[in-house]
Amino acid sequence: VTSLSNVHPYVQFALGILTAASQLLIDQANLDSEVFGLLNTVKDLYEFLMEKDTLENIDSMKETLRKISQEMSATALFVVKYCRKQNFLVRIGDRLVSDPQTVARGHIKNLGDLMQQYRDRTMRDIQINMYHVLEDLNLEGMAYAAGAGLNMTKKCLDGTRTEILKDITHWITTRDENAPRILWLHGQAGRGKSAIAHTIGSLIQDMGAPGACFCFAHDRQSERREEKILTTIARDLADRSPAFRRALSNIVSNNLALKTTCDVVQQWNRFILQPLSKISGEIVGNVVVIIDALDESGPDTSRTHILRLLTSADAAGLPTNFRILLTSRPLPDIVRAMAAVPHVKAASLDNTPWELVERDIKVFLSKGLEGLPGIGVEEVQNIVNKSDGLFEWARVACEFIRPSKAGATPKENYDDLMALEDEEGRTLLDTTYFTILKTGIPRTGTRFKRYRSVMRQVVMTLEPLTMAALNCIRKNFPNERDHYDINLILEFMSAVLGGVVDRSSPVRPLHASFYDFLMDPLRSGDYSIDISDAKDLAIATLRILRDNLQFNICGLESSYLANVEVSDLPERIEKKIPCHLSYSCQFWGQHLEKTEVDLVLAGQVRDIVGSEKILFWMEILSLLGRVGKGLSVLSSVRRWLLKGNSDFEDTLTLAEDGIKFIENFISPMLCSTPHIYVSALPFIPLNTLLSAVVMPKLQCSARINVGGLKTWPAEQLLLQGHTW
């Protein structure tokens, strides 16, 4: 396999699995006749994959080749269990089978049928033999970064980036035990790093190989994904490898503290290194972990420990079939960490030969501008020449040229684009961003004021929201003149923002470079966005809480059921807790912290934390599974109040009581929302201000008459500021 770097990535993956599986069989001294026949079939398949006719027809038969690879992955799992004399259970058709001869015959038949299907250029439904895990291995409760995984819409266009994709695939599949365990793919913004990462991730998924894809994103920094990176990767690997799942389950079972730890060093040791050490040799083929856009994790400190782990001796000693593909811009802290590390292979997209970049951008533009009047081969080549090798600029150029402005043809838009030149202090990409904004938004008058207000809301929102949710929040802004539909502004910005054309998607910059452009006045000039004050968002989120919080908002009938046991809870949440309310519950404190302290805002905070509404707010966090967010919110509120004077002392005490309430009762709150009132509230210390405020208003709730706590346990003071 090490000499096959020029074949298609699909074939490279299949051959890698084939080689590893066949070597295991060859090493066995005694083989049953059917298993020996399987070895011969593997040999036939290897020769088939290397035939000229096979290689020439890959593009039209990718689906069959994908199934061949999946069947080989299943075959490899059988081989491991057979060679180790382990028990297994396989579904063949409608039957569950554990006899090795029957299983081997099933694999031989499937592989033979798939090869014939490929030769015949036909597509038939062939059922892949699926292995069933006999144990009940529950990983529920492990922290998981939802939405951080593979995004198929970000893949490279077919026929582009073929050389780098083959190089990466060869690095993944090589049998060289000294191959670097980590490949760091870097380059300036817009080079296409994420597209390559997601293409490799898609390929791994298609092949049925064990792997995980974890992506950072600038507009998701509030989620602190860096604290969940390895728990998420471990859970994804467990979903793809029964052996890894079994080893991980043995480590985390009955240990909630470990499952939810945000300590990445502990995650690395317990969730990655230990399971891998327990299953040495049980995974045939390669395990691939992708970490995309590490530079978007946040400030340098957010990735310090991650970089330290990736460059450690433990990373160098990962199993020989384990690979980590890391992408980022070459930021100084990442460059310092990765430079001259023996087990890290660095590859720069900035150094890709121009003729390859030119070819790929031309393919991309030809597809994106296909059919537009006045845009032919010459125009496409001119755009390629102007792109400076940036795929993001090519994408923006397509959006710029497509008909979007009243009274302008694609050819006229093209002429405007070609007239753009680098300006002092701006790259061509910045100049293009500036022109898009200038074309849609004049720099004076009402529209410009609205642009600044809307974009300030978009970039200051701590979690991307749909246009509908943003409008609901905007209707609660303090100035009624701001209560307009944000589409008045955003409809002119679909070239740079997602969620404008497809309104079911959140509004977010299509590329991190546009966010950077808006944040830097030297680059964006009058169109720069000031994010120093979040008063509008603070007031709006507080008003939304004031008007929408209510007791038992989802109408739960019983405290005998855990939240996960309420079968229609997702439907209830969707109906009763709309996105703007969910967002406000999770982030009102963070927006408050970015404002100046004043009496009016402090009064609105008191209305929440100084009434039963604080419990209704906790209800929503419990229903959403985000109780830990309550600690972050109230910690922000506490810091904001400490900037004020003694007039806010009672409100500060109530916020601190709320922090201690969550810290003491987070387990029952996470388990069952009604248990806020059944298992938490009765035990609130009698001498606390929170008790004095809420207990008189909840006369029917249970109480501890004798022996209850008077004040909060002293050890809880040590947990202030801790995040869950």
TrEMBL record:
<dbReference type="InterPro" id="IPR027417">
    <property type="entry name" value="P-loop_NTPase"/>
</dbReference>
<dbReference type="InterPro" id="IPR056884">
    <property type="entry name" value="NPHP3-like_N"/>
</dbReference>
<dbReference type="InterPro" id="IPR007111">
    <property type="entry name" value="NACHT_NTPase"/>
</dbReference>
<protein>
    <recommendedName>
        <fullName>NACHT domain-containing protein</fullName>
    </recommendedName>
</protein>
<dbReference type="Pfam" id="PF24883">
    <property type="entry name" value="NPHP3_N"/>
</dbReference>
<feature type="domain" description="NACHT">
    <location>
        <begin position="181"/>
        <end position="330"/>
    </location>
</feature>
<keyword id="KW-0677">Repeat</keyword>
